[in-house]
Amino acid sequence: MAFGIPSSTRRLLYIRDLLYELVVRDIKLRYKRSLLGIGWSLLNPLTELLVYSFVFGRVIPQEIPNFVVFLFIGILSWNWFQAAIMAATNSIVGNRDLIKRPGFPSPVLPIISVASNFIHFIIALPILFVLMYIEGVPLTETALLIPLIIVLQFTFTLGVAYFVATFHVTFRDTEYLVGIFLRLLLFVSGIFFSVEGVREEIWLINANPILHIINAYRFGFMNTEIPLLGNAMMWTAIASIILLVFGYITFQRTSYRYIEEL
Amino acid sequence: MDNSIVVKNLGKKFRKYNQARPHTLQEAIVRGFKGMRASESFWALKNVSFSIREGNMVGVIGHNGAGKSTLLRLVGDLGKPDEGSIKTNGRIGALLSLGAGFHPELTGRENIYINGVISGLLRKQVHKQFDSIVEFAELEEFIDNPLHTYSSGMAMRLGFSIATHIQPDILLIDEVLAVGDLAFQQKCLDRIIDFKRKHCTILLVSHDTHFVAQHCDSAVWLDKGQIRNLGPAAEVVDQYVEAMQEKVAVYKNGSSQNKAKSNSQIAVAEYDEQSDKNSHNSENTLNDENDLKTNSDSIETGSATQAAEKLVEEAFADGEASLDDKATAPEDNELPKTSDTVEDNE
What does the alpha-carbon distance between residue A252 and residue A20 come to, in Å, rounded to a whole number? Predict the structure, then answer.
């Protein structure tokens, strides 16, 4: 009963199909039985834009050119990261029935969390272009960097995802800890105000890869000058790769335990 | 013909965790990370060796908690052996946890694709088999309705139908033959025999000794994690049934002893309390010739009583679960029912 396809090729094809089916399942489920359906992918970042632009545009005005575009880039990137990490935390515990099937590759589960939230990022991207058009921000050749930045954010997010998923199997309050940690991170990632002013005083802010990733998107979309961006990107890339490798190894090592303990 | 499954000296240790093992980081910190480690362990499987030839069908029998499901899971690479090794040759399919990934909000059609891929098929393979899956499940009219409109039997049928369309080289089956109504059950059995005809190697855990004796080529009898016997299915099943009947007999004998107010020790007394609750009708014996005769002689004879006690204890430890369903295997007695314990759910 062979399939006539070399087994390693088949395995790759299989992982691709599995990712496809499970990501589509995630997305379908999110919008089943909702009035607006896929519209929520657009409405969510738009309402956030409204709130933040009111608070940081009117109540505590920022001196940032094209603030709406600046803000929306931050919101999009941050939402992807946050939603992916929240979903990944529960990706093992919430999918026991899948983990307990012979041959099911459990490392795909955190990938699915990151990938399906990436789809929402993509869906909301046209709004950004509309905002850029309204604000008169032209796309320049720096936009060519954007796919690379997306790959970088994917790598970093997945690295974190493997760790939180592993940790949540042992400690079920990881979810709350992750929530608290994310809220903290939200304020030091330069989403609705620029943290450039304090970066030199508080060096720890520089250790936040999300800050650099969001800055890079802004460079890509708006061609704004950001000091030392190249350097920051290099370190972020190295850190992300190391994180992903370690995260994956930790995940793999403990995955036999999950199967037995879940 | 080659061997499809080779199990060598297999041993699997299960850890028993403290009942008070912290589940959250908060608890763990408050208690200073005490009780995180397993307090003790036991061997769920030990020294298990056998090999199965390609195209053979092997039944695994034994009482509850004997390690049957653990064995099956290890063969399916769900968990690491602590000793020995398992070699499998070919793609493994499983009739375990049918309907994994099913979601009630999605339609039957959507669920077939998801579950089919989860079960190991490529999308185009699911596509090719789609009509056949629907037809086998007898769900043509409902396939585009959401799964929550299905009865539980319909959902099970769909799960089984997908599982049997994956064309594995090795098929693992864990007591899932009771799906749907009688007609569908027969269809399932036919399907399994069909697999065998197509030279699929089948490893099957079942309490249905009839089925094992009739259809399996050979059988493995597991007892407390060790192989008690293995060989031609009919022979092993006969021995197993005989041993079980002895236990049933002793079990019943135990309760009549209680009525005779024997001077048994605590173990027997406790046991009798239990059995009194469960089986007042101990006179309605299953098998009279196997029932030990209870008369005052055997109770007064010291050695006979001791022997009987020993048997009763054993029966209590092993045979109980098969006598009344709510009883648990002995290893489970001290374990909490939460997910942090590794146990052999059967």
Answer: 22
